[in-house]
Structures are given as structure tokens and as C-alpha cells.
Write a structure and sequence with these properties.
alpha+beta, FAS1 domain, FAS1 domain-containing protein, Plant_FLA, signal, FAS1_dom_sf, 23% helix, 7 strands
Length: 217
């Protein structure tokens, strides 16, 4: 998995002009319909405009099929949540893999207004898979692939799910399975009679005892 991600970075790097410093994150996502929902939120919250002003940035985008918990946030939390998906430096799988430590705190665009929440936890597992998580939340958002990149300027990488701080979104519980009720006591376990022997009682009348012989006179 990691080798495929690295290969995609090299291909995208070859097709991208390194000298081009300015970028437009919305324009980079125009031909990526699977991220239309995330792109819409970038514009709606004006996070895209703030990201375009950065000298370097890394966007962690979420595919539409996983957007529910992010898109359903109230307005007072939505901008902060989207901004927390924008890292303030350029990263790609190669650069992340070259880090001296397997864990790190990476500042996000949210740190400009909230120093506490405006960071992401990064960790690299034993198998090389990379994950992100918000402070106080599990580090479970998996780095899936590189979507677009202009090396040392901007990268767009897909993650498996939104990266939300605790309290920003309620996980949707899976519906419980309903058992089928039995009818007329069917299915009830009855005590087993195995090993128990029934006593066989005689049913006939007992024979009368023979009369004792009369002693001879």
C-alpha cells in the first residue's frame, strides 16, 4: 500500500511544475468529483481562501461517501473542523516516511485561532501505514492516496474518514440485531430425561398364597 502511494507522488510530481508557487485548492479538485462535498465545504467556510494564502499546505480530503459526520456539523463547528484538515506545511508520503520519529504533532490552519485544537496527531504503524487523529481522539484516519501534488508547495491527500476533535461529531451506532421471538414456547430447552430409569411396577393382582397343608391326624 505504501509503495503505491509513493509511486503516485512521483508521477504527480513529474506532471506538476515545481516553480509554480501560488495554488488554488478548489481548482485542483475541479476534476475530482468524488471530493465534491469536501470542495463545497472549503468554499462555503472560506477555508479555501485562507489555504490559498499559505506558502505551503497539505489538504487531507474526505471522499463524499464518508462525509456525513463532517457535513452535518453545526455552523459554529463546521469551519473549525474543515480548517483542521489543512496542514500548514507541505507533506507527502515520502516526506512523512522520512521523519525521524513515528509520531508527531502537525499544526493545522485551525491553530491560527485555536492553539489547542489546531494540531493533528500523526503516527506510522509497524506495517508502514500512516494515520491521523485529532487531539484526544483515536488516530484512525488512514492515509489512502495522493490526489494531487505540487512538490514543496501543496499536496492533496485522501484520508479514510473525517478528523474530528472529541465532541464535534457523534458516531453513528450500528443498528442492533433483533432476534425473532418464538411462538407457543418453541425453542425452549426442556430438561433432559436421559439417564433416568423408570421403575416398572407390576400391574397384575397378586396371587393368593396357597393354603398351608393340614397336618395329618
Amino acid at each position: 500500500m505504501t509503495s503505491k502511494i509513493v509511486l503516485s507522488v512521483l508521477v504527480l510530481a513529474a506532471a506538476s511544475p515545481v516553480a509554480l508557487a501560488a495554488f488554488d485548492v478548489i481548482q485542483m479538485l475541479v476534476e475530482k468529483p468524488q471530493y465534491a462535498g469536501f470542495s463545497k465545504l472549503l468554499e462555503q467556510t472560506n477555508v479555501a481562501g485562507d489555504a490559498n494564502q499559505l506558502r505551503a499546505a497539505s489538504l487531507l480530503v474526505v471522499p463524499d461517501k464518508e462525509m456525513k459526520s463532517l457535513a452535518s456539523l453545526p455552523a459554529d463547528k463546521l469551519r473549525a473542523a474543515v480548517a483542521n484538515h489543512i496542514l500548514l506545511s507541505y507533506f507527502d508520503p515520502i516526506k512523512l516516511d522520512e521523519m525521524k520519529t513515528r509520531t508527531a504533532l502537525l499544526p493545522t490552519l485551525l491553530s491560527k485561532t485555536d492553539k489547542t485544537l489546531g494540531v493533528l496527531n500523526y503516527t506510522r504503524a509497524d506495517d508502514g501505514q500512516m494515520y491521523f487523529g485529532a487531539p484526544g481522539a483515536p488516530c484512525v484516519a488512514k492515509l489512502v492516496k495522493v490526489v494531487a501534488a505540487r512538490p514543496y508547495s501543496v499536496s492533496i491527500m485522501e484520508v479514510s474518514e473525517p478528523i474530528l476533535p472529541p465532541g464535534f461529531g457523534k458516531p453513528v451506532a450500528a443498528p442492533g440485531r433483533r432476534g425473532k421471538g418464538g411462538k407457543g414456547g418453541k425453542g425452549k430447552i426442556k430438561p433432559s430425561a436421559a439417564g433416568l430409569e423408570e421403575s416398572k411396577m407390576p400391574t397384575g393382582k397378586p396371587k393368593e398364597a396357597a393354603a398351608a397343608p393340614t397336618p395329618a391326624s
